[in-house]
DNA sequence: CAATCCACGTTGTACTATACAACTACTTCA
DNA sequence: TGAAGTAGTTGTATAGTACAACGTGGATTG
């Protein structure tokens, strides 16, 4: 086993451990908005509205999954649909005001949790860690 | 927004993106052993056997969840139970030979996938990234 | 322009992971 | 020895997910 292998092994283990915990942690912290709902709503907010198909492509989810997630968010009053006048098949999705508000709350609370976890990190480490994660995820997207 | 905030924001986004994808990716790569089954079986292998309660405590899962996961692994022939002679409530769980073999295969294949993703990283970066992940996860465990 | 094909979304169905509560069986301890 | 605690299972419910079948509405092409 080389040092390189050791590092890769650790990265694998830690990423796996994190992935296992993430949903449950998110659910405990934000019962009002699951991790998936949160990311979908955040994407709508970020993109100033988009189609269900775009969400499915972006998050590698089946369109039926997105359809149901959006239906749930709509039922909660967090998302509204606007039929595209140029193509009646298309529904452009937007956060409602209430949805934007809830999103902002959850975002703030998540941000605070991350700040707490990272409180004793110095800025150089934070910066490098952030860059590594970006690089890792980019590679994962590239390689599937 | 300070640089520090920017870094934390990026870390949050990237960890979230990773968490969202992890299960589906694992399931695609290893239909024979889900991420959860994999980690449970790996823990049994690593610990040379342990109790269901230990697994539940270690992975913050409900004992009923572990019970069902183990039942599934047993049905697949990957895990066997040995009743503790000193305490008839306790079942010590062990991977079977076949379970150990499947685990080894999945581990090898996961390891290879990680090596591919990280192929163009130099060793210093790998080492730092591994250390950051360990540090991050430790903080998360500490703070819930 | 009609027939065909394609894109968008919904619904039926099924499965996995999960939690909580109620239960059984066993152990420990006062 | 009886009460309390521990290990594990089972009943029930929920969330998230995929795949397949479908309906509807645009786009293309002979």
TrEMBL record, chains A, B:
Record domain HTH marR-type: where: 8-138
CDD domains documented for this protein: HTH_ARSR
Gene3D superfamilies in the cross-refs: Winged helix-like DNA-binding domain superfamily/Winged helix DNA-binding domain
Bilayer-crossing regions: none
SMART domains given in the database record: HTH_MARR
Name of the protein this chain belongs to: MarR family transcriptional regulator
């Amino acid at each position: 086993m080389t040092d390189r292998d050791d590092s890769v092994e650790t990265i694998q283990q830690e990423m796996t451990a994190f992935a296992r915990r993430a949903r449950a942690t998110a659910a405990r912290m934000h019962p009002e908005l699951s991790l998936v709902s949160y990311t979908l709503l955040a994407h709508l907010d970020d993109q100033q509205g988009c189609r269900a198909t775009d969400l499915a492509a972006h998050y590698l989810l089946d369109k039926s999954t997105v359809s149901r997630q959006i239906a749930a968010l709509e039922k909660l009053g967090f998302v509204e649909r606007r039929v595209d006048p140029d193509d009646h098949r298309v529904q452009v999705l937007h956060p409602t005001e209430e949805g934007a508000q809830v999103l902002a709350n959850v975002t703030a609370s998540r941000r605070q949790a991350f700040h707490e976890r990272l409180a004793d990190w110095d800025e150089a480490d934070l910066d490098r860690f952030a860059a590594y994660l970006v690089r890792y995820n980019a590679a994962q997207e590239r390689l599937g």
